[in-house]
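Re: beginner question about structure tokens

> Can someone show what the tokenized structure looks like for a real chain? I only ever see the sequence side.

Sure, here's an example I had lying around. Input first:
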Amino acid sequence: MEMFRFANPEYFWGLLIIPLLILFFVASRVARKRAIKKFGSENLMNYLMPNASKSRPVFKFILLLLALACFITGIARPQFGSKLKKVKREGVEIVIALDVSNSMLAEDIEPNRLERAKRAISRLIDRLSDDKIGLIVFAGQAYTQLPITTDYNSAKMFLASINTDIIPVQGTAIGSAIELATRSFTPNGEANKAIIVITDGENHEDDAQAMAKAAFDEGIIVHTIGMGLPQGAPIPVYRGGQKDYRKDEDGNPVVTRLDEPMLEQISAAGGGIYVRANNAQVGLNALFDEISKMEKTEMESRIYSEYDDQFQWLFAAGLALLLIEFLILERKNKYLKNIHLFGTTK
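And the corresponding structure tokens:
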């Protein structure tokens, strides 16, 4: 079934101009009629202006008002979409917490740690069918990028927009990310839940182990994926289109290294597993296989398709009305004046 809505209903306030235009038109017609009376009687003026029409200006004005109404309604963006409905699915709920700190730009994993992680998440989304997924980004702070959903197209769209500039505060607040992910699952949901933290673990700031343990106590499994190689790599910086590397106070390149022991401790506290990414694979597929072993739970999901804009039809109608108004003259055509299209006489 279809449902209808206006994407920008605030533009309907523009319709308030129509009553004002009507008042102005009526006032101008009354003033014109009074001005004509000053020159002589109505019969005399009809004789002197045989082609003048009383109905044509009114009809042209109505066409203008209808065209204006069409344009305003079109700007409000009428849309059709599938009716919101509830469906039953069986699956698990997964929240991915992705590190977007500057160290994730290191290129020890090609093309860099962050881009490789995003590609792996995209492939994981392709494998999902009846599972819910959410995205959290974190650096010095953690933010929800995508609330948990079964809309995989939206998940890919939000994933593509992730970069290291999305969070201005630098750092690696893994604990905050896990805490936020724990609160991101469906409230009172019975589905099995898993958090996947993807990070290099460097500059770890908070008590991520305690947060992972707290999540596990609530029945949420916490897995970790280490992005980077133990030997580490410098962090690239682009200035004026030229590639350079981040340097310390002494002018030496800053090398970012994977903190494996810490990530292993987090996954252990969260009852999950730790996987280290490399240039051959990231490890999400292995984790998904592990998650797939979890008992499937029936979940209730709301699904609907994207809305399609229909404003073009209103704009076309408005232009057609304007064209008709332009072609109609205010005065009678002397050759067609006996054809009373807009009235019986006059």
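Each token stands for a local structural state, so reading them left to right follows the chain. The two ends are 51 Å apart (CA to CA).
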